[in-house]
Q: What sequence folds into this?
């Protein structure tokens, strides 16, 4: 009992109150979008904070999405682009980070500095040049154009984070593996297993921005066949008339995959974030 009293201090109460307040601020917009996706248009603007009631409940937004046959294609496009970009960022980033952390060569420091600059300078500053390059390569309106750009944008941070994890792995393990006859790729796979928290942290920081991005799909792949979910939602917004029921329904559906992924892998996500913070 005494230990419990010592644990409940004004400082602890203040910290928990601050965390609860931040949680409310972060979740309130999401709850607002989900609730209003099940409400009639008049109810959305009349009382946006109120939950859907019997007289205001409607599925017209979801019915609009169901009538549009291309909406399933939008989800598939987003999944392809996000999944392929994530795999390339993790694979190439891990390989580059392993080389920079475990091998010493003349240009290693300069290359590490070059990648660090890539974190500080937004890739959107090169939009015009990237667009010209994509058009010149004949990749406009293709998934590959988006995948290449997202991979290039995610690699600097991936290498920076994973390099710290690889540097913490004892070199004795690598030496013992070499004595047993393991090659470079076998050692890389072994060290990669020990850096799983770092991979999880990089996956979190890479996946969500790609899934939610509107800039690059709008510029590089605005066609119907390659439009992503975020870009496809814009079709319900017009200069004079906007179908807010469909917009909110589309945003709710866009939230579901990320939320489901977090619920399944929340422990790995937290370990990855904590591991990245400690490094």
A:
């Amino acid at each position: 009992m005494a230990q419990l009293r010592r644990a409940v201090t004004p400082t602890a109460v203040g910290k928990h109150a601050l965390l609860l307040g931040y949680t409310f601020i972060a979740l309130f917009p999401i709850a607002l979008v989900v609730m209003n996706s099940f409400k009639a248009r008049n109810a959305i603007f009349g009382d946006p904070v109120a939950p859907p009631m019997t007289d205001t409940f409607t599925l017209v937004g979801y019915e609009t999405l169901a009538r549009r046959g291309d909406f399933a294609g939008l989800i598939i496009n987003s999944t392809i682009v996000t999944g392929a970009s994530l795999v390339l960022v993790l694979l190439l980033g891990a390989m580059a980070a392993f080389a920079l952390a475990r091998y010493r060569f003349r240009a290693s420091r300069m290359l590490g500095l070059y990648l660090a600059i890539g974190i500080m300078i937004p890739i959107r500053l090169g939009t015009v040049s990237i667009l010209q390059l994509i058009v010149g390569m004949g990749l406009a309106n293709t998934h590959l154009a988006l995948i290449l750009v997202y991979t290039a944008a995610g690699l600097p941070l991936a290498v920076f984070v994973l390099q710290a994890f690889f540097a913490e792995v004892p070199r004795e393990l690598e030496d013992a593996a070499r004595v047993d006859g393991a090659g470079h790729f076998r050692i890389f796979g072994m060290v990669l297993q020990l850096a799983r928290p770092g991979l999880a942290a990089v996956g979190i920081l890479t996946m969500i921005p790609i899934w939610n991005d509107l800039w690059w799909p709008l510029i590089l792949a605005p066609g119907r066949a390659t439009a992503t979910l975020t870009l496809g939602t814009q079709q319900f917004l017009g200069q004079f008339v906007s179908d807010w029921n469909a917009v909110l329904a589309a945003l709710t559906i866009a939230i579901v995959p990320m939320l489901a992924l977090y619920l399944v892998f929340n422990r790995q996500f937290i370990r990855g974030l904590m591991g990245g913070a400690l490094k």
